[in-house]
Specification:
single chain, alpha/beta, Rossmann fold, 9 strands, globular, binds zinc ion
């Protein structure tokens, strides 16, 4: 006979896996392979996520992306072209109800693509750097509910938002009141994006890790 904890474990094990495409690559000033190595175990500890870290951007093509439930993009590629095939793959994926998470340099990528900008919501304009407080702005949202404001030493990305995006800002910086994290819907899909994440000082911040993990759960409709 199964005990309660055995039954819970069995139930968790019987749930289908959530397959995550964690894309990296581009600007070498961002060590996103190291970032992904920090975040992957946090995600896998949170539930049934199975994370594939890759710099193969052909995974955005529709015949490849359909294998996944969630895309996390740590790509920073300002001058790279987002091909029509990648655009079609990613937009169809999110529109159909799958999730997208954009980290830091994701807002300074594929600037030729209006569709990419619309999916991410914000596009990088400028940045500073320094110590500041990330202040939770919308305490009712499940991604940040109960999360305390936290200190960071990080780049301070600023953005212009796509005219067709309707973002809900979840966190702002105290130093300039600019959005540090937001969510929106794209078709039936859920999108979370954060300006945070230049280097290990932010990846290792517990507040950042908590928000990232919850964002992945929210984008895959687990919370
Ligand atoms: Zn950076």
């Amino acid at each position: 006979m199964l005990g309660v904890s055995d039954a819970a474990t069995e139930a968790a094990q019987s749930q289908p896996e959530l397959r995550v495409l964690f894309e990296i690559g581009g600007y070498e000033g961002h060590d996103m392979r190291a970032c992904a190595a920090v975040l992957k175990p946090k995600l896998e500890a949170a539930g049934q996520f199975v994370v594939n870290i890759t710099d193969d951007w052909e995974q955005f093509r529709k015949e490849n992306i359909l294998k996944y439930d969630l895309v996390v993009s740590g790509i920073c590629a300002r001058r790279s072209i987002f091909t029509k095939e990648w655009e079609e793959g990613l937009s169809g994926f999110v529109e159909s109800g799958k999730g997208f998470i954009g980290l830091h340099g994701s807002t300074d990528s594929f600037r030729d693509s209006d569709v990419y900008w619309r999916i991410v919501g914000g596009r990088f304009t400028r940045h500073g750097h320094g110590e500041h407080t990330v202040r939770i702005a919308d305490r009712s949202h499940v991604i940040v509910k109960g999360v305390a404001d936290f200190q960071l030493i990080d780049e301070t990305y600023c953005h212009e938002f796509h005219p067709d995006s309707k973002v809900t800002v979840l966190a702002r910086r105290d130093c300039d009141d600019e959005p540090a994290a937001w969510v929106q819907h794209y078709g039936d899909g859920r999108v979370f994006c954060t300006s945070i994440g230049h280097d290990h000082q932010s990846w290792n911040a517990p507040g950042y890790q908590e928000i990232f993990t919850r964002a992945c759960l929210w984008a895959t409709r687990k919370i």
